[in-house]
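Go through this chain for my students:
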Amino acid sequence: MMLPAGVVRNARASYAFFERNMNLTKRYWAWEAVWLVYNIVNAVSVTYIGASAQLITGVTIDTNFLILYLLIGTVVWSYLSVAFDQVTETITIERWEGTIEYTFMAPIARLTHLLGSCLFAVVHGIFFVLVQLVVVSFFFHIDLSHANILTSVGMLLIGSVSFIGFGIMAAILPLLYTERGSQMAYIVRALILLVSGVYYPISVLPGWMQPIARVCPATYVLDGMRQGLLYDQPLTALWGDIWPLIVAGIVSIPVGLWIFRKAERYAKRTGKLKRNG
């Protein structure tokens, strides 16, 4: 069965943006190396907290369990950070390259453009996580005897859809605020870190913050991955974590595209695209 010509054309255009982002990553390889090292050091440092908990507290603790608990949080956070930043920094890099005006003038649907960028962000994030896990495995013995790997991978991929929607929304910041837009996007990422339970259960948060945590997609990705890796739960048993992610993806991507189009029109009207650097 042949696909409609329009679908094939849009798929090729999306891949073109995927390939362009890959080439931009190669061009700025030194920055990639910096962030990779940063993520690895952060993962090892956080995991050492779990390894030293018994020594610090003087209380008998299952440190293997705590190490894996913290490592799951670090992996999800690294993936979210890399994928999130890749979407938002695409705008910043295009300003550096002086190509942003040409991209927005091209006869390409904005969905096609952003889909290619988002798919590269997902692949980029998965690559960073795999390298991080390989390095961490040299420092710690990670007990995966009760782990369901398929569940963890499935939860990460399902969560990626909603992460992309939030990444598109955050991409308007470097679009509208030339000098500090990327730094402003870090605030959004930091808020997700605070409320989603990356390193702790959300039940320890103040009561007024817990409802915020329950609308954050990362909360459900983390819970689902921990259920799979720590308790060997199959993906079919985690519908309570899956359906909020599906709803978040269905809502966040169209809303993100709508907001981005509004911001794009405003930037064109006010001449903000002309400013580079």
Summary: The chain has eleven helices and no strands. The chain has one domain: 8-274. Residues 63-97 form the longest helix (35 residues). The chain has a mean pLDDT of 82.
